[in-house]
Specification:
Rossmann fold; Helicase, Ruva Protein, domain 3; two-stranded antiparallel ribbon; 15 helices
Length: 337
């Protein structure tokens, strides 16, 4: 769909249709998931921005249930991969087996792994060895896997939602920076409020059962992703996103004191791409067909928190990456100094 030569009325209609479909998915997910509105929004923004997300939170906060419910609400194929220390790359990508026909002829047959689905839940991804974690890299970046030298495309749309538990570190393998960078957003899943927890108990300990209906087809998701990429972004807004990402580097003139003191490595160019694409989704949800400074600021924290790598001093003093990113957002001006 080319939106460069259509009337303002048609643009308004496209924005409203985008919002309607987004809210329909959000409503279906809300039938099962109590609260967590920010988490649901960030997951859906990741979907429409054509990225992947890492969800971090303690056990029991419905991270897995959220991802499964999302797949039900969009009528897409869903697979769950439980990452464990003995999981091998072929358990993810698939493998070739020798098959014999009725005439005794033998030939290789490819058996697809669970990665061949639209929505992938990589559950407790930090429990698998680096060798297995690396099997996800090609699929997340290239949307394909290579098995025995043959490249196989993954079905669109393709979304990886990985989870990890920040508390248990024994028997885990922290994700390397290169793999963390392939996640468009890192989403923190917080504990529910008292009222939300009461609602969770009411839904899960009684005979109430919510039925999720598919709100949007997979083909529509692909179309909505294309609409996102056609939202205009003015040069000064894009430059603001660039300045935010560059301020995570200790040698940048705009880096605040907390960056110079606590940061080891800053964000990559993928951070700017994520800021722009996620901001465009928020613009459409705000009924605007243009990117704004506020859109960039709203997604800056989940985009930059896992790309701002802290040093030992930060760990020793209990300084979080969220604190550093908030300092960056507060210090970087929307116009060049």
């Amino acid at each position: 769909m080319d939106l460069s030569n259509i009337s303002p009325a048609d643009v308004q209609r496209i924005c409203q249709e985008f919002q309607t479909d987004y809210r329909a998915i959000e409503s279906e997910v809300g039938k099962v998931i109590v609260g967590q509105k920010a988490v649901i929004e960030e997951v859906l923004v990741t979907l429409f921005a054509d990225g992947h997300a890492l969800l971090e939170g303690v056990p029991g906060l419905a991270k897995t249930l959220l991802i499964r419910t999302l797949a039900d609400a969009i009528d897409l194929d869903f697979n769950r991969i439980q990452f464990t220390p003995d999981l091998m790359p072929a358990d993810i990508t698939g493998t070739n087996i020798i098959e014999e026909d009725e005439h005794g002829h033998k030939a290789y047959k490819f058996i697809p792994g669970p990665i061949f689905a639209n929505i992938i839940l990589a559950d407790e991804i930090n429990r698998a060895t680096p060798k297995t974690q690396s099997a996800m890299l090609e699929s997340m970046q290239e949307r394909s896997v290579t098995v025995y030298g043959e490249r196989r495309e993954l079905p669109p749309p393709f979304l990886v939602l990985a989870t990890q538990n920040p508390l248990e570190q024994e028997g885990t393998y922290p994700l390397p920076e290169a793999q963390l960078d392939r996640f468009m957003l890192k989403i923190n899943v917080d504990y529910p409020s008292e009222d939300e927890l009461m609602e969770v108990i009411d839904r899960t300990t009684t005979a109430k059962f919510a039925t999720v209906q598919p709100a949007v087809k997979g083909a529509r998701i692909i179309e909505m992703k294309k609409i996102v990429r056609q939202v205009p972004a003015a040069e000064h807004v894009v430059r603001y996103a660039v300045r935010l990402a560059m301020a995570t580097h200790v040698d940048n003139v705009r880096a605040p004191e907390s960056v110079r003191r606590y940061v080891r490595y800053g964000a990559s160019p993928r951070a700017v791409q994520a800021l722009i694409l996620c901001g465009k989704v928020l613009a459409l949800l705000d009924n605007r067909f243009n990117l704004s400074y506020d859109d960039i600021r709203r997604v800056a924290l989940p985009v930059l928190r896992h790309r701002t790598i802290l040093n030992f001093e930060a760990e020793a003093e209990g300084v979080s990456s969220d604190k550093v990113v908030k300092d960056i957002i507060a210090s970087v001006q929307t116009t060049a100094e």
